[in-house]
Input
Amino acid sequence: MKSLNSVYIDLAVGLVIAFLLFSLLVSGINEGLVRLLGIRGKFLWAYLRDTLDGPRGKGSWLPGTVAEVFARLPFSKDARPVFSPLPAPVESTATTWSGRLYERLREIDHRKDGRTSIASIPPARFGVAIMEIVTGEGGVTSLLEKLKADGSPLYGPLKGVWDAAHGDLDAFRKGVEEWFDGEMRRLTMLYRRYVKWVIAALGLAITLLFSMDSLEYGRAILTDNAVRAQVASMADGGTSALAGLREKCPEHPTDPYACITEVLSAPAFVKIVGNAPVSVNIPDGGSPRWSWNGGEWLRRLGSPGHWPGFLVTFVAVLFGGPFWWDIFRRLTGIRARAGETDK
Output
């Protein structure tokens, strides 16, 4: 019974490790694309342009559909202002309200691909920037009139905050900070919802790229356990395991030890990630050899028998790395041992 429990624990840990590594790979690729393409900054300034200047002629700067998530933010016209190393001018020269805001925020900026790198604005700093714009425009009432004349969507929120402040500038600034903080929370939720679609697309791509069949992988783990049991039987002087090992290695009919070395040097995980179109083999004492595995990879993708395993992998990856790391720690007891060490 104890041996049976060990087999199932090995199976669970093996699957969790695979899901954890694939989830981390998907998250890493997503984060790399976000940084490379400046997605967070584009998302923030798309919102600011919609809020301050109003939607452009073709519609909102922010994506509204799943297709726009993959096309508009990464590849369409960049909503971020052009980077400027100059301090904020005494008198604004910007032609848009988002440009006026950027003028007040340039001191926290640094160069990145010719566009602003600002991807997060603290509410307190936004409130100060609005107060600086208010001073430049001759007061809150004058600013509100200009916002209304320009058709800026910012007019409504600032008008409501100003009415609630009853002419108190300090209360107005705090109200602007609270309003902007709430907007950033809402924007964060919207961003995470869009990121889920990206994670799903990347998860599907990684699953198909490695043709990761979780059900097949589970069977491979159990096979590894069986081989280890056979090896243990041989170590105890048993001979019944030899026939099974010879069946696994017909190229070594008379040398079971060479067979053991070959089988155990290619564990389940190595085999499962070797189903990508390009695989690598590292022989003993030799250089890595890359080989094209496209034919077998296409055969696996076209085999309906692998689809349930692909689906399990895809769904598992969607749970994310933190989820599988927590499961792994619970299975292995890492958290408990760390707690005992801290004591």
About this structure: The first strand starts at residue 111 and ends at 112. Confidence is low (pLDDT under 50) at residues 336-343. The longest helix spans residues 169-209. The two ends are 34 Å apart (CA to CA).
